From TrEMBL:
GO molecular function annotation: ATP binding; ATP-dependent diacylglycerol kinase activity; metal ion binding
Organism: Microbacterium kyungheense
BP term (GO), one: phospholipid biosynthetic process
Listed name of the protein: Diacylglycerol kinase
A cellular component term, taken from the record's GO annotations: plasma membrane
SMART domains found in the cross-reference section: DAGKc
Cofactors named for this entry: Mg(2+)
Length: 299
């Protein structure tokens, strides 16, 4: 089996570790022909991966975090070429949803060499200009996208703790944001939400921000998205909500609603959405599900 192992040296964290080299050595020890692809930018990395796929690789592996995995999703969606993940990034939320987050390099490489795969869904974002992009874990807009803005600009600390700090800082200027939302529910019925929200989040996976279970019951194999809406409340009340968010028990709070949907359109002026930890576009955006779009290696 020929494997293309993607690592992005422009990633914010984890890309300069020895994860890729160690994974490649482990894969080769299993008899797999493994080539490391490392572009100087996200665009160059995508080009290298696209060329490898066109040349006929049998599998793709990524040594990195959600941002680098997201690059691979764009090229692999719908191809049937399996993806292996060596978690080596800041958040690794997509890997967490798939049960791979805690794997070390050797175990992740062994899962690829083992050859066991399964199919999962991907969420597809359509912008107003008609362009599209896939994501695997969570799309965030509103308060949580502002947290992403702040966390991504922070040089210290590394890891998931910077998201915690960013959350607390953003609370100082917390305010409701006007939204217009239209969705198709799991049973095909249509629904709309209009008015101020703190945030509107769409989950294919369960966690974001390095393990925060914002959509605790999301299943990337059920053909549905989890739409999580948080309505304004007093700042102190929302601050008290945070421990429930970290435990994944926030669905019981009156200001929170979680709805299973087939598709959803989010509109709000001046709001940029993030997906898999990176900016994906300004609202309005339409998000729908592509069932079974990705094949992944699993232990």
């Amino acid at each position: 089996m020929r494997v293309a192992l993607l690592v992005n040296p422009a990633a914010r964290a984890g890309a300069h570790t020895g994860a890729a080299t160690n994974a490649a050595e482990r894969l080769r020890a299993h008899g797999l022909q493994t080539s490391i692809l490392s572009g100087g930018s996200a665009a160059e990395s995508s080009e290298l991966l696209r060329a490898a796929i066109e040349a006929g690789v049998d599998a793709v592996a990524v040594a990195g975090g959600d941002g680098t995995v997201n690059l691979a999703l764009q090229e692999l969606a719908g191809t049937g070429i399996p993806l292996g993940i060596v978690p080596a990034g800041t958040g690794n939320d997509f890997a967490a949803t798939l049960g791979l987050r805690e794997l070390d390099v050797a175990a992740a490489a062994d899962a690829i060499a083992g050859g066991v795969t399964r199919s999962i869904d991907l969420a597809r974002v359509t912008r107003d200009d008609g362009s599209t992009r896939f994501f695997g874990s969570v799309l965030a807009s509103g308060f949580d996208s502002k947290v992403n803005d702040r966390a991504n600009a922070m040089r210290w600390p590394r890891g998931g703790s910077r998201y915690n700090i960013a959350i607390l800082v953003e609370f100082l200027t917390l305010a409701g944001i006007p939204y217009d939302i239209a969705y198709e529910g799991a049973d095909g019925t249509r629904g709309e939400v209009h008015g101020d929200l703190v945030m509107a989040t769409v989950g294919n996976g369960r966690t974001y921000g390095g393990g925060i279970p914002i959509a605790p019951d999301a299943d990337p194999s059920d053909g549905l998205l989890d739409l999580v809406l948080v309505r304004p409340a007093g700042r102190l009340r929302l601050l008290r909500l945070l421990p429930k968010v970290y435990r994944g028990t926030h669905a019981i709070v009156p200001e929170v609603s979680i709805t299973r949907v087939r598709s959803v359109r989010l509109a709000s002026p001046g709001v940029t959405a993030y997906a898999d930890g990176d900016p994906i576009g300004a609202l309005p955006l339409t998000i729908d599900m592509v069932p079974g779009a990705l094949t992944i290696f699993t232990p």
